[in-house]
Each structure stands twice: as C-alpha cells, then as structure tokens.
Design brief:
single chain, about 280 residues, alpha/beta, eight-stranded mixed beta barrel, about 50% helix, binds ligand C2E, binds calcium ion, Diguanylate cyclase (GGDEF)-like protein/PAS domain S-box-containing protein
C-alpha cells in the first residue's frame, strides 16, 4: 500500500506542482497589489421596500496588471490562508472609512451606511477593536455609518470574546450584520447573545426562492427570526422583481442585488446615489 501511495504521489506530482506555483504566484501578486494600488472598492446599493437607498456594501476588487479583474472569491480565501487578509482587511476598512468621511458634507450621500466584510481572522486579532476605533478617529468617519458584516464561522469558537468586541464597537455606534445567514452552523442560542443589528439572507437561498420550497421556507424562517429578535433582514443576490416581491411578502426590510445595481466603481456609484435622491 505504501508503494502504491508513493506511485500515486509521483503520478500527481506535476499537477500538484502547478497548483502550488499558481498559488505562490497569486500570493506574490497579492503582496504587490497591497503595496501598489491594484486594489479598489466597489459599492453595491442596499435598497428598502420604499425604494430608498439607505446603505451600500463595499466589495474589494483586484485589478491585476496581467489578468485583469480577479474575483475576491478567488483571492480572499488565499489571503485568509496566508495572513495577507490582515493588511488587506485593514486597507478595506480604512478606504471605506475615508469614503464615509468624504460623504459627510454631501446631502445625497451623508445618510448612507457602508457595510464592510470582516474576515474571522481579522476580527480575532487582539487589537481589532482598537484598529477600528483608530481608523474612525483618524478619518473622521461617523461610527453610526459603519456596519461590519460578520459570518457565522466566527461564532464557532470563543463566543465571549466575539461578544466583548462587538459590544465595545457598538458602544460607539458601529453596527453589525450577520452575512450569508443560514449557510453556517450558528446555534440559535448564540444568535440571541450577539449584539447584532441585521441578518443577511444568503443569495444561495434567494436564487431559487420562487421554485424551491426549501429555499422559500428558509427565507421565511430568517425573516421571522429577525422579527422576533428585533433585527432588520436584508436579502442579497436579488436579481428579479419577482424575487423582490416574494421577499417583500415575507416581510423583508431591504434588498441588494443586480435588480438594483451591480457593485460599481466609486464615481458610478455616486451618480447612482444622486439619482436615487432625485427620484
Ligand atoms: P458576499 O459578502 O456574500 O458578497 C456578495 C457577493 O455577491 C459579491 O460578490 C457581489 O458582487 C455578488 N452579488 C451581488 N448581487 C448579486 C446578484 O444579484 N446576483 C449574483 N449572482 N451575485 C451578486 P463579490 O464582490 O465577488 O464578493 C465575493 C465574496 O468575497 C463576498 O461575498 C465576500 O465574502 C468576499 N469579499 C468581498 N470583498 C471583501 C472584503 O473587503 N473583505 C472580506 N473579508 N471579504 C470580501
Ligand atoms: Ca457581505
Ligand atoms: Ca453575503
Ligand atoms: Ca454570499
């Protein structure tokens, strides 16, 4: 068995090698991206049932010099594995806070909240709270306008520490949303302990909501849960008016998705926000 194992290993060697070096190249590229200015934030509107834009999610983009746009779905997991998520996450937070501060004097932008995705590894840094407080202070962004999107994977270990950090940030006004809700394994008893403001229905449940009774049931359950816990519920990945209507019938509060807009570079997002105010 040992010999066979060794043969198998040798057989896969070139392929493994290719995977390893592709990863290494991506990692080196990501370091350059952080050092240079290949990273950008795109902004996707969050719209209420009354067609008001109340917020926006900031989504990171990597404009690779050779490959063009590399999806965060590809490089965020790598950044998490390598620890690059720490400088990357800090850059995202800082950029979002600067943007918030720059909107403060503009009537068509000043009411918007900016939601920022925070990786578990980033959140678990001992000085995470201090980092956020320092960034808010340094940029002048209003804490009440910043919302942090956390995922359920954060809740598997060290729940007391998570609650303590959230509570410290909530005290100054920072809001919290639980992202991709329903895809993880958070226990409902944990959920009750967290100082959350919002639950986000994952797009995986929205996609087939009109045809898959299980997805519809989960969406209904999340809205009911949000109601009973006093949390706003937002659905992501809303692409059609029929999906939006179905979610509205369940009592969903806000929506995000291609139905309203794709994530946009800053200039395009600002003109879209302007048109929302004028409508
Ligand atoms: P996510 O937080 O669940 O973000 C939603 C993703 O769905 C985004 O993909 C967005 O572009 C996409 N999306 C929005 N509306 C629609 C729609 O109507 N239909 C479909 N099919 N997709 C839609 P994106 O921007 O590629 O980001 C992928 C994931 O990468 C994010 O998922 C998030 O987990 C991660 N990510 C993105 N930016 C950051 C960041 O700054 N920090 C961290 N830690 N993670 C990030
Ligand atoms: Ca998110
Ligand atoms: Ca999400
Ligand atoms: Ca998602």
């Amino acid at each position: 068995a040992k010999a066979a194992g060794r043969n198998t290993l040798r057989f896969f060697d070139p392929q493994m090698q290719a995977v390893v070096s592709a990863r290494a190249a991506l990692e080196a590229g990501l370091r350059d991206a952080l050092a240079g200015d290949q990273l950008q934030l795109y902004y996707q509107p969050q719209v209420t049932g009354e067609s008001e834009m109340t917020g926006v999610e900031a989504l990171v983009r990597w404009l690779h010099p050779q490959r063009g746009m590399v999806s965060p779905a590809e490089f965020i997991p790598l950044a998490e594995d390598t620890g690059l998520i720490l400088p990357l996450g800090h850059w995202v937070l800082e950029t979002a806070c600067r943007q918030l501060a720059s909107w403060a004097g503009r009537p068509e932008m000043a009411h918007l909240t900016v939601a920022v995705n925070v990786s578990p590894r980033q959140f678990h840094q001992v000085d995470f709270v201090d980092q956020v407080l320092t960034l808010l202070e340094r940029t002048g962004a209003k804490p009440q306008r910043l919302k942090l999107e956390l995922t359920e994977s954060l809740l598997v270990a060290n729940i007391e520490d998570v609650i303590a950090k959230m509570t410290a940030l909530k005290r100054v006004g920072v809001g919290f949303s639980l992202d991709d809700f329903g895809t993880g394994y958070s226990s409902l008893s944990h959920l009750k302990l967290l100082p959350l403001d919002q639950l986000k229905i994952d797009q995986g449940f929205v996609r087939d909501i009109l045809t898959d009774p299980n997805d519809a049931a989960i969406a209904r359950m999340v809205v009911a849960l949000g109601d009973s816990l006093g949390l706003a519920v937002i659905a992501e990945g809303v692409e059609t008016e029929a999906q939006r209507e179905f979610l509205a019938d369940q009592g969903c509060y806000a929506y995000q998705g291609y139905l309203f807009s794709r994530p946009l570079p800053i200039a395009e997002f600002e003109s879209l926000a302007q048109s929302y105010v004028l409508q």
